[in-house]
Amino acid sequence: MEFDDGYKRRRKIIIFAATAVVIAVDQYIKKYLKKEPYRCEPLRGIIETERIIGHTDKTCREQIRLSKRAFFSLSHLIREKGLLRDSRSVQVNEQLVMFLQTVGHNVKNRVIAHKFGHSGETVSRYFNLVLGAIIKLYPILLKPPSVAVHHRITSNEGRFYPYFKDCIGAIDGSHIPAWVHLSDHPRFRDRKGDISQNILAACDFDMKYTYILSGWEGSASDARILDNALHRDGDGKLVLPRGKYYFVDAGYANQQGFLRPYRNVRYHLKEWRNIDQSPSDKKELFNLRHSQLRNVIERSFGLLKSRFKILKNQPEYPFKTQARIVLACVLLHNHILTQNNVEEEER
Hints:
The protein has about 350 residues and is of the alpha/beta class. The protein is about 50% helix and about 10% strand. It is built from 15 helices and five strands. It has helices at about 1-35, 45-55, 55-65, 70-80, 90-105, 110-115, 120-135, 140, 150-155, 185-190, 220-230, 270, 280-305, 320-340, 340-345; strands at about 165-175, 195-205, 210-215, 245, 260. A five-stranded mixed beta sheet has the order 3-2-1-4-5, with helices on both faces. Helix 2 packs across helix 5. The radius of gyration is 27 Å and the shape is elongated.
């Protein structure tokens, strides 16, 4: 009797386990081996991509924030370096267009999936592949500052030259909205009460970035981040050419390599607008000239954020990905300015 009961129990367990295995195998086959296409239009992504990059330059700029020349130059560079390849279902140009629409307009994954006829998993996978490919272009797209005197300074003799002949650009911090876990909110809450990451950037007088450090919590001060940038190891270190310096605002300390304005003296350009008054002393004159040149970093930040709307919102990505997105946008900004002049991009 005991033998029969034990046999029956084992038999039930074997039948149950076999049934579970059959169901699991069936589900696996349906999900991974016999996947049905997410959309019924296999050429939808190709058609949508061609509608964007194959028409006018205006359409290209509006949809992916790059001119046609800048887009095809980027596509060629990425292919040449072997960073991306055409897959059976998604070509490199389509991969780039999906990524650029996402960062250019802060478009959600499901919207891109519907527009290009792919699954959300496919869109997410290619987003991360393109993000990684662009970041690998860091040595090409983000160059150290030139030590030659910039023509903006030399062309204004008596105004900027020779007084600022050793200045190579400007440095400042900026806050980018961040999406982090609730427990991390106190660290990422900035002085305005927003949840953000604080980035440090340097640019030259052509508005190209020469240094970028992203990923700091919003509560960190600009001076603390700059100190960290100067003492980092490897490629992330901010290197100052001998005898040269950057303009900084009053939130930083005057030290070798960094020149700030006089404190408690009229400084910002908006303070000089709409008034018919010249600088009253040498301190005001210095601050005015300093502000006129350091304004280049503020213009660079403004152009960067207006082009890539994802930097004005809180993207729901892991925080490391958010920091990488900032870096990728800066590299794309530099690439665009190598293809088109500043005046053309600021229109």
